[in-house]
Amino acid sequence: MRGYESGLCAEFVEVIHRQAAGRRVSAVRVRVGARHAVTAETFRQAFCRAARGTAAQDAAVHLVVSPVTIDCDGCGRRTESMDPPLRTPARARAAAGAAGPAPGPSLAELDELDELDELDGAYVCPRCAGDRVTVSGGDELALEAVWFRTQAR
Ligand SMILES: [Zn+2]
């Protein structure tokens, strides 16, 4: 498992545990921007691990991914993408030209992507594969909702 998701989850779990104030949590909803390159499955696994022994243990995790907006200087199009960032423009161009969803970065590449700043330029226009793009949004990281179990006293 990657350290990145574990770190994210540890922070979320800490906040949830504090909000819970002794109650048990039944479910949480977390919003994560596509730029964080987090997948639902790895996030859930990391969350479960981080939540062990806290109020959030056994809580259901709903992950909502927000898209990035890509404004292209080349063709003038604005598109939204749910894809994770690609490490290099070459990779991104290859993905834009390929049919089907873009492949995510490899694990080795992701290990280097700890800082969001490094992700700038990691998108290309899905229309023309140009790399002169302005990327906005998709960097959200928020705990949207927490549901608590009703307790019989
Ligand atoms: Zn374009």
From TrEMBL:
Q: Print the keywords alphabetically.
A: Metal-binding, Nickel, Zinc
Q: Where is this region: Disordered?
A: 81-104
Concerning InterPro entries, the annotation shows: Hydgase_Ni_incorp_HypA/HybF_CS (IPR020538), HypA/HybF (IPR000688)
List all Low complexity biased stretches: 84-101
Gene3D superfamilies according to UniProt: 3.30.2320.80
Taken from the record, one Pfam family name reads HypA
Similarity remark: Belongs to the HypA/HybF family.
Listed name of the protein: Hydrogenase/urease maturation nickel metallochaperone HypA
Source organism of the structure = Nonomuraea salmonea
* Lineage start: Bacteria, Bacillati, Actinomycetota, Actinomycetes, Streptosporangiales
